[in-house]
Specification:
about 5% helix, mainly beta, 2 helices, rod-shaped
Length: about 425
Amino acid sequence: MKYKGILVLTVFIFFASTLFQANGQITAPGSSSVTETEYQAFPETDNIFIFCVGDENDRTASLQVQTSLTGTKNFLWEKYNPSSGSFEFYLSESSEDMQSTITGLENGGYRATVTQGESAEINRAWVFNNSITANAAISASSCESFTLQGEFSTPPLVYNDLANNTELEIFRDLRVEWVQGQTVIGGALEQIIYRPPATDTEYTLRVFDRFDCEATASIMYESIVPIAAFTADPMEGEAPLTVTFTNLSENADPNLYEWFFYRDLDDIKRESERTQQPIDSIQIVAFDQNPVFTYENSGTYKVKLVAKKSTEFQTCVDTAYLDGFIRVDTSFVAVPNVFTPNGDGTNDLFIVKFWSMQSLNISIFNRWGKRIHFWESNNVRGFEESYTATVWDGRINNRFASPGVYYYIVEGRGRDDKTRKAHGFFHLFRGID
């Protein structure tokens, strides 16, 4: 009897080992990611299959068990019941197929037992329909900033330790980011945007986890702020200098522009030193969209543009200063020292160059001091780099002047309101090389 008992026990152990071998496996077609359980008391681990879904009521999860057993076999599917702490019947089917699939699954643990005669394969797995929902809004919108407000919700992914039914939550590493176009601009649900854009701009909240499941929500910022900008052309030249200002402002009301044309910097400094009092440095204020301004006097000038955007509750303002200065040249006269009225088309006329003059007169004398020619202008208006005038064609009373040395005296008043005088001599050559 003693040996017989040992034989019976040995047969039982062999039968149990055959019944619970697990040569098959469970997969999850269409799952987004897979991780493993972290049971604290149960000695084994099982796969956890994650399915990314758009709504927590979606049932996308599916499982498939594959077997190495041949012939007709029974596929028994069971679902873990946290209330009882045990697996309970879910589905059973007999088939000669090498696999069995269940779809439309709720979150939870599933066990598949495949039996064929005295052989059996047992496999387990957990599935979760992982949903995230997100919302985006804008608050506290002002001229200086606005706030992006985000929120999201997602059910926890909880499974049970099969040894003691303890609840365990899956670590998902949830993260958020705000995106503008292709640029990530922040990683918090509440994001303050300083210096708001001058154009309507879409911002997107993205919420995602380590399983590549995500949700997005977009919100359109309707701009209430302007950006002031302009160019000036030309930036320098002789007086009177006419400058065209081109308005490049964005999102501003066309009837709310203000242009401030400042006085010459040296004039401002001199008056400030003389009076020791605050002074008005503004020469004129214009309200055109693209003004044209003529600087009558030489000097160095600054310009400011104020652009405004008015809405129901507030008016936002932005200011832009000219990048650099408008430089109007001081008065200047240049007289040539050689004059060859010989009809060859080169240097045949006595031409004087001058900048920024209001009035000018030029007297020409022969070697004996007799004035032989006089030229004047009381309304000189030069542009571009300089202004030139033909002062003398080399004739005296319609007769060719003799070659030799002649003298000149220049007198005038510049647009800087300063008297300009110059004198010197030049050579008149008549011969042709």
